[in-house]
């Protein structure tokens, strides 16, 4: 259930909507409102686990969970992967302190204003359409890559490196949400956004990247206590 939907990503000062999702790493449901009035929370809204960049973004966010908890801040990771498929993945790739939820319909992404980009041959109207010519002209540099690669080549390389085996659930998520943009939002205990990092910002300059840990922890320090 949603309190509202927005046509732009939520920004600092915006009140986050309530979203209720199926939990992955525990039984039952997870909702934004269970944190509201209780504790601040860092919410990461990602594509499905089929996306090698998101797998790394999720791991990067999870690596900060312990430090955030020390500041009294919880973390919630949301993936587009269906619940049972996601549970199977995290069973074999556990991440300490991970609270994760499944959102295959991308309800939370729409509620937080993250668009699902349409891929075109050559027309770009960011952040709603992007031409494949623009995508293939991008170069991604990561320690795991042998050289700077365009996103498609990088995904193929990383999937092979990870030994990721695609299921029908993964293929369905790719078909319906391959262009879903992602983001992280730090909410205070009242559920108001105090910091965010999204692929929408700066004409997509954050695409496939992660926020610097010091940036996340600096924002966390500002609302801790």
From TrEMBL:
GO molecular function term, any single one: oxidoreductase activity
PROSITE patterns: THIOREDOXIN_2
UniProt xrefs under InterPro entries: AhpC/TSA (IPR000866), Thioredoxin-like_sf (IPR036249), Thioredoxin_domain (IPR013766)
Residues of the signal peptide: none
Domain Thioredoxin span(s) in chain numbering: 10-222
Domain of life: Bacteria
Alphabetized Gene3D superfamilies for the sequence: Glutaredoxin
CDD domains: PRX_like2 (cd02970)
Name of the featured protein: Peroxiredoxin
């Amino acid at each position: 259930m949603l309190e509202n939907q927005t046509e732009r990503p939520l920004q600092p000062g915006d009140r986050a909507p309530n979203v209720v999702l199926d939990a992955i790493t525990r039984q039952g449901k997870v909702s934004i409102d269970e944190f509201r009035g209780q504790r601040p929370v860092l919410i990461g809204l990602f594509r499905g686990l089929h996306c090698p960049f998101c797998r790394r973004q999720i791991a990067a966010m999870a690596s900060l969970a312990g430090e955030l908890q020390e500041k009294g801040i919880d973390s919630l990771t949301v993936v587009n992967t269906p619940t049972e498929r996601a549970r199977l993945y995290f069973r074999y790739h556990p991440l300490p302190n991970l609270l994760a939820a499944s959102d295959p319909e991308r309800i939370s992404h729409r509620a937080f204003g993250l668009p699902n980009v349409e891929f075109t041959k050559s027309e770009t109207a960011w952040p709603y359409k992007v031409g494949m010519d623009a995508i293939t002209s991008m170069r991604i540099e990561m320690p795991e890559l042998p050289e700077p690669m365009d996103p498609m080549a990088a995904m193929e390389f990383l999937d092979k490196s990870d030994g990721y085996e695609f299921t029908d659930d993964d293929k369905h998520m790719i078909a319906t949400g391959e262009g879903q943009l992602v983001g992280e939002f730090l909410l205070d205990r009242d559920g108001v956004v105090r910091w965010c990092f999204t692929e929408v910002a700066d004409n997509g300059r954050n695409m496939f990247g992660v926020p610097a840990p010091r940036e996340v922890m600096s924002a966390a320090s500002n609302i801790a206590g």
